Amino acid sequence: MLDINADRLLADLYDLRKIGAFKTGVHRPTLSPDDVLSRHWLVERLTAFGHDAEIDGIANVIGRAPGKGPHILAGSHIETQNEAGWLDGALGVIYALEAARAVAESGAYGEHGVDVIAFADEEGHFADMPGSQSWVGTLSEETIDRAVDRSHGTPLREALAKAGLHGRPRRRMERDRYLCFLEAHIEQGGWLEANDLTIGVVTSIVGSWQYRILIKGQQNHAGTTMMKMRRDAGVAATRLLQAIETEFPKIAAELTVWTAGRITLDPGAPAIVPGGAEILFQFRDADSAVLDRLHAKLEELVKAEDATGPCDVGLEVVSITHPALMDGSLRAAFTEAAERICPDRHKLMPSGAGHDARTLAPHIPSGMLFVPSINGVSHHWSENTSDADIVAGARVFAGAVGDLLAAARG
Description:
- By secondary structure, the chain is an alpha+beta fold.
- It is built from twelve helices and 17 strands.
- Strands 3, 4, 5, 6, 7, 8, 15, 16 and 17 form a nine-stranded mixed beta sheet that branches. Strands 11-13-9-14 form a four-stranded antiparallel beta sheet, covered by helices on one side.
- The model has no long low-confidence stretch (mean pLDDT 97).
């Protein structure tokens, strides 16, 4: 059975954690100086044991194993949300790095190995998973032209050029090179910890539908405008959100979630009746039929609020991602490895968060593995996982890699 060097794995994770350190977490947004530094750090780690590594024109880091293959592709992402956690994404990249080294050191798998990839901008600072979209060939040049950083408004083209990546080709996945894609991640929730489990084997990744709700009323003086004369966009926004909270539970599934992530009033002053409002809204589920029902209900509620007035209310679709099933044979490989490493402490579970594996799943058999998040925290600098769970997850991940490569070798 393929095993890992636990001390080396943890040393790499803690070393990477220093790049962009923020409190106990990391601030390493996409194409920031620290993010670029971390990508070069990874290239150095890959080339040190014989991989052919590069950063391509969309900022993906790709490390190719020697040998004719076919190989396993494994990885995740290494940029972070702003002032966020140190394991979100990075864990999966270092698992892939350590598995690739273990395969190379074992000498037991012939021409087969592990290619390591760190996709760019899974966190969506510029666009919806542009790194993995580029890898599978679904990212257009026009999308890159339009993409800007959501915090600072910097165009993606400008950020790539500043990182020294202008003019580099965007690499595409060579499908014949790969057996499958494997990704590991922290759970980003509290289910594993609450159930005293060490490993979650992912069955599916939810689809996420995101919207912009725009409300137009009439800006006016808060002290002199009679209540019956007001076209208050803020009131319309709260009334619509309350309608959603009333109606969505009637048609949602057990694990459906929805969020009004940002509510903006214009002009947002205490003495002015807001003339405009914008709501950034999303919902997620692993069942396409549920997503369709929610979309139809949201359209119905927006039209009802628009019709009854007094404000004009419109709905704009920002992005749609569809649910993705993880490959059954890869679920089985992770489950068998988990039973060897941590018997009876693993379960099948869906992913409520989006991951690059969702992008790859329509193009290549894909599988995902989760380890617990302490207190269920993620996207915050206090995010953490115990060293014991990190090591156990890495051993399960490497065990599955070894089994899959051994089967491929015959």
